[in-house]
Design a protein that fits this description.
Elements lengths: L8 E3 L12 E3 L4 E3 L14 E3 L6 E3 L11 E3 L4 E4 L3 H9 L2 E3 L2 E2 L3
Parallel strand pairs: 1-3, 2-4, 4-6, 5-7, 6-8, 7-9
């Protein structure tokens, strides 16, 4: 699903987590706000996730560690990665991407 630069505003719909056959989700370069829905953890076929260049904020959901991403781009946001070892190990397993900050303790 390619929605980069589509002029989207508001929060990311939680219902996107129901698209369990989705392999790629590009939401970059919009005006999406709020957090990444924890329902994204159900996207177990997702390989590419592009969230960069949106005013998203808050910690990335721990549920994302169930998603075997190859590409994850989230730079240019105010999102942060949980500091726990499981999440950091998951991030390190991703082949390509841009990283953001680690959440403060």
């Amino acid at each position: 699903m390619y929605l980069s630069g589509a002029g989207l505003t508001g929060s990311i719909p939680r219902e996107l987590g129901n698209l369990t056959q989705l392999e790629e989700l590009r939401l970059a370069s919009n005006r999406l706000t709020g957090e990444v829905p924890s329902e994204f953890g159900k996207l177990t076929r997702l390989r590419n996730l592009h969230l960069m260049l949106n005013p998203l904020s808050g910690p990335l959901p721990q549920e994302l560690t169930a998603v075997p991403l190859r590409n994850f781009y989230w730079g240019g946001t105010r999102l942060c990665a949980p500091a726990n070892q499981a999440f950091q190990t998951w991030l390190d397993s991703i082949e390509h991407g841009s990283r953001g900050a680690t959440c403060p303790p």
